[in-house]
Write a structure and sequence with these properties.
It is a single chain. This protein is an alpha/beta fold. It folds into three domains: about 50 residues, lambda repressor-like DNA-binding domains (434 Repressor (Amino-terminal Domain), Orthogonal Bundle), CATH 1.10.260.40; about 130 residues, 3-Layer(aba) Sandwich (Rossmann fold), CATH 3.40.50; about 130 residues, Rossmann fold (3-Layer(aba) Sandwich), CATH 3.40.50. The protein contains twelve helices and twelve strands. Helix 10 crosses helix 11. The chain is elongated and about 70 Å long. The N terminus is likely disordered.
């Protein structure tokens, strides 16, 4: 393509200047908060690339694209698949489409996904359980003027809406389920501690244990990624240390499925030797050789509420941030 005829984008300027997309937009829109040296460099490059004022106008969010961005850490997870599908349907009913960006739980991909979506001039952004987007990043998005909703994560930012599962209550109820089975030894296989859902579910576990005069033994926690093979490895590690019975509280169903398989491969029983619980209630949970006791997350409601809040934020940008807390439901099956 002839470079003279190609339309220069904000990303072209950002790449040439070595700064973020949001920094370029703030400089071109004179929003302040950027150093003089950086501003001069951005403006110089914009001029050199022949970035014209009418192109700037088109790059602003004044024109609706009827498109929403949705960043997820791993769209292959069954939980996210349900959430995404519900979000897409809710958006479609309002005349919007959804662009989904998958980060594979990698920090650089999460940052890149946000910038790519912003460069596509989306009308609003949903971040699904972001692992690497910090509070500073969230505040920057708000200052940039991006309508934003967080799913399964909260933020103190004033103009950010959040939809979360009541993980504290869920962790409390699932732990009580194990305690009802008179489990003396308790083990926890759960997602990395930087995830908000892990911290809040463990908080609920601790509350239930405290009511029984017990504490949560930190050396009984094994952190792993939310995959069947990771649950298998984590449980195998416990078995190799001589653990031969007790309650196993898993942070998600896929970890629990792997844990049950590891137990059965050692010719131990569930229930009996071990009692195992999950979290999420994916479809597979009810079809295992030992159906899984778990907490049912309102997955579709998370997606629908996220879109509803985002569209409301787009239409009413000045309102304060809101937080929707959705309840979970204990589903009792054979594993505990």
């Amino acid at each position: 393509m002839n470079q003279l005829n190609r339309k220069v984008t904000l990303k072209d300027i950002a790449d040439a200047a070595g700064v973020s997309l949001m920094t370029v937009s703030k400089v071109l829109n004179r929003k302040g908060g950027i150093s003089g040296e950086t501003s001069r460099r951005v403006l110089e490059i914009a001029g050199r690339l022949n970035y014209r004022p009418n192109q700037i106008a088109r790059s602003l969010r004044s024109d609706e694209t009827r498109t929403l961005g949705f960043v997820v850490s791993d769209s292959s997870q069954l939980v996210f698949a349900k959430i995404i599908r519900a979000a897409e349907e809710a958006a479609r009913q309002e005349g919007y489409s959804v662009i989904v960006a998958n980060t594979d739980q990698k920090a650089e991909r999460e940052k890149h996904a946000v910038e790519v979506l912003l460069n596509k001039r989306i009308d609003g952004l949903i971040l699904g359980a972001p692992l690497h987007t910090g509070e500073e990043d969230i505040h920057e998005l708000v200052r940039f003027g991006t309508p934003l909703v967080l799913l399964m994560r909260t933020s103190p930012a004033a103009a950010v809406d959040c939809v979360i599962n009541d993980n504290v209550r869920g962790g409390y109820e699932i732990m009580n389920c194990l305690l009802e089975n008179n489990c003396t030894d308790l083990y926890f296989l759960t997602m990395p501690p930087q995830t908000q859902s892990t911290r809040t579910r463990l908080e609920g576990n601790r509350l239930a244990l405290a009511e029984h005069g017990r504490g949560l033994a930190e050396d009984h926690i094994r952190y792993c990624d939310p995959f069947i093979e990771e649950g298998y490895k984590a449980m195998t590690g416990l078995l190799e240390q001589g653990v031969r019975g007790g309650g196993v509280c898993c942070g998600c169903d896929t970890i629990a499925i792997g844990a049950i398989r590891a137990i059965q491969d050692r010719r131990l029983s569930v229930p009996g030797d071990f009692y195992v619980t999950g979290y999420d209630d994916i479809e597979l949970a009810d079809y295992l050789s030992v159906p899984l006791t778990t907490m049912r997350q309102p997955k579709e409601d998370l997606g629908r509420e996220g879109v509803r809040l985002l569209l409301d934020r787009i239409r009413n940008p000045g309102q304060p941030g809101r937080q929707i807390v959705l309840p979970s439901t204990l589903i009792r099956r054979r594993s505990a």
